[in-house]
Amino acid sequence: MGFFGNKKTKKTSIKDCMVMIESFFNKRRRKKLMKDEAFVNWATNIIHTEKKWRSFFNNLLSNTAVVKDFDSAVRLSSGYSNLCFATLNGDFLDGSGIIDSGASPEFEETLFGKKQLLDQLKSELPVKQKQLQKLSETTVTLGEKINSIDLKVLSDQGRMLVNDLANIDKQIAQFEFEKKKANDEIEKTHQLVQEYAADANKFDNEKNKKSDELNVLQSERSAFESELRNIEEEYSRTENEYNSLIASENETKLELERDLGEVRNLDSLVIQSKNNIENLNSSIDSRQKDIDRTEKELNELINVLNVKTSGLQKAKEEKNLLTNCLEETENTYLEIKTEVSKIENEQNNCRSEKDAVLDSNRDHEIKLNELEIKKQNLSEHISEEYGLQVELKKFDDLNIFNFSEKHNEVHDLRQKIKNLGPINLLAYSEFEEEKRRLDFLIQQRDDLVESEKDIVKTIDEINHAAHTQFLSTFDQIRDNFVMVFRSLFDPGDEVDLKLEENSDPLEGKIEIIAKPKGKRPTSIELLSGGEKTLTAIALLFAIYLVKPSPFCILDEIDAPLDDANIDRFTRLIKDFSTDTQFIVVTHNKRTMESAETLYGVTMQEEGVSKLVSVRFNENVNVVA
Fold first, then answer.
1. Is a pLDDT exceeding 60 seen at residue 341?
2. What does the DSSP 8-state code read for residue 83?
3. Average pLDDT, the chain
4. Tens of pLDDT along 33-56?
5. Is the CA virtual torsion 530, 531, 532, 534 positive or negative?
6. Which residues, in sequence order, are bridge partners of residue 39?
7. For the chain, how big is the Rg over CA atoms in Å?
């Protein structure tokens, strides 16, 4: 059986055959697309709707495939130009290349859209009611928390925060001191580097100096050689004189003793001259060795220079060859590039013609699909609205029938129906329900606003009370600090506590000013260890005096103090002992001497601690 059927069937036109062929290839492309890893499903299989809308969505989404991501959609659209692609993120890529980013569509002003909106609002109503109930419970919880706020606890927390801020300031000062110290070390390192550079320059100068000394030694060698020649001449002359004296010995016996003395002198002179000659020979040998070593090094340098010169000449020749090869390669490349450009231009022209043909074919297909969808929509609309079946019918008055006039008349009627809008019989009951809900929400909002005002008012009262109590306590601590500090040092010492100006007292910094007599430190960090410890003890007792207790435990507070400051500390403890009993943990002997009762912990047996107490009685007289 061929495309045109057999004798028993009707003959199929060429157009129908083309449609069948195209349908066959479309099915093959669809099966191939379904095997791709990026393919998810066809849009018609994913969309769920009512039965009456099923045919509309099937026709609308018949050529739409759902893929994983946008990159896959772009890749597949190049091979399947007759299909549309939608991603899981909401991006839509039309077959003609139009891209629509993913976004939530707005409801149209139709009955279908309004019905969906109403269903959505009904589904959200229980969730909103639960949220409202949670807000009410949160409001009640906040009210209970506000009622449970204790001003005393807040003031205690404020004092703790002030102490923490003081500790942080001390740490910052320590960090700044360490930073300054590190900068000094860096500066010292730079100085050492400069010294090393100066030493290197000094070594270079010494090297040049040694070279000059070598030149001087060479000049001295030539002087020594000339002196050696003079000595040899003198030696030969002395030897001649000695021979003449031996010859005239028999003739001048009377002058023998005098001549012998002269001979002895000449012999000693000869020996000294020989020694000088040997020394000069050894010096000449050492200088000759130095000259030979220097000449050898010079010859080696000349050989290396010759090798490098020959290598440079070869490198220049290779460079010239490579330059010529590069020029030939560039010329060949330009020729090939010109041919490739021509081929690419021809290929681009072919592609443009192909794309134009494909675009035209795609436009015709789109128009044909649109007309088919419109035809089906009209048929379904007429069937649903008027209960009539559309059939192909021939009219005799087609030539005289005014289609534009009837079309305008139908359009006007549709516009009038659309202007009337849908009739909602439940509008009044829905209005009453929404009004009650609105009144309830307004009441809840008013309650929340009033609660917020009450909370703000309570916070202001807490801040006012905290500020007042803090300033009052701070003044007492400052007076006590001045008194205790001057009792530890001298009455004329400068001491004070200052709050940071133009800042919240609860959040501002507190500056401790302590300047013992004879000192003017710019910061408390510049005091000695004992002075800083006594200042801290004075501040501790100043805070303690605001709210004293019958017992006070001090753990090794006197560890940094020397003997003189220990006496001041024990005197302060005795002054305060009238109202408070102090328990001091210490290792200092002077502190132990000032105590009334002494408790010692000893370990006579390993792992077993034992307490030993001693009470001192000042009334006991000691007899020597």
1. yes
2. S
3. 76
4. 787 888 888 877 877 777 777 777
5. positive
6. 67
7. 58
Better-predicted residue by pLDDT, 208 or 568: 568
Q: State the CB neighbour count (10 A cutoff) for residue 394.
A: 5
CATH 3.90.550.10 for domain 14-105:
no
Write the DSSP assignment of 8-61 as a string of letters. TSPPPPHHHHHHHHHHHHHHHHHHHHHTSTTEEEEHHHH----HHHHHHHHHHT
Enumerate long-range contacts of 22-28, CB under 8 Å, 24 or more apart: 26/82
Are 588 and 567 contacting, i.e. CB atoms less than 8 angstroms apart? no
pLDDT band at 225 (very low <50, low <70, confident <90, very high): confident
Instruction: Categorise residue 502: left if φ over 0, alpha if ψ from -120 to 50, beta otherwise.
Output: left
Residue 569: name the closest of 596, 543, 530 by CA. Answer: 530
Residue 541 clears pLDDT 50, i.e. is over it = yes
Binning pLDDT at 50, 70 and 90, where does residue 247 land? Answer: low
- DSSP state, residue 557: T
| CA quadruple 256, 260, 261, 264: dihedral, nearest 10 | 180
Going by their DSSP bridges, the two strands 84-87 and 64-67 should be labelled as: parallel
**Contact indicator for 539, 189 with CB cutoff of 8 Å:** no
Residue 343: other Cβ atoms inside 10 A:
10
Question: Comparing C-alpha atoms, which of 624, 553, 563 is closest to residue 591?
Answer: 563
* 3-state SS assignment for residue 492: coil
Query: Which is it for the CA torsion 472, 476, 482, 485, positive or negative?
Result: negative
Residue 373 token pair: 């969808």
d(C-alpha 503, C-alpha 334), whole Å: 77
Q: What is the pLDDT of residues 21-35, one digit of tens each?
A: 667 667 777 777 787
Helix, strand or coil for residue 567? helix
Quickly tell me which residue has 């807490």 as its tokens. Answer: 462
Query: By C-alpha distance, which of 116, 114, 23, 36 is closest to 78?
Result: 36
Specify the CATH number of the domain 548-624. 3.40.50.300
What integer is the mean pLDDT of 239-249? 68
Write the CA distances from 593 to 16, 155, 492, 596, 617, integer angstroms.
124, 40, 30, 8, 12
Percent share of the chain, pLDDT over 70:
82
pLDDT at 67: 86
Report the alpha-carbon distance of residue 375 to residue 392 in Å, rounded.
12
Band of residue 441 on the pLDDT scale cut at 50, 70, 90 = very high
> Strand, coil or helix: what is 276?
helix
**Domain residue spans in the chain?**
14-105, 248-386, 548-624
Amino acid identity of 143?
G
Q: What is the distance between the alpha carbons of residues 18 and 22, in angstroms, rounded to a whole number?
A: 6
pLDDT at 467 over 80: yes
> What's the predicted TM-score (pTM) here?
0.32
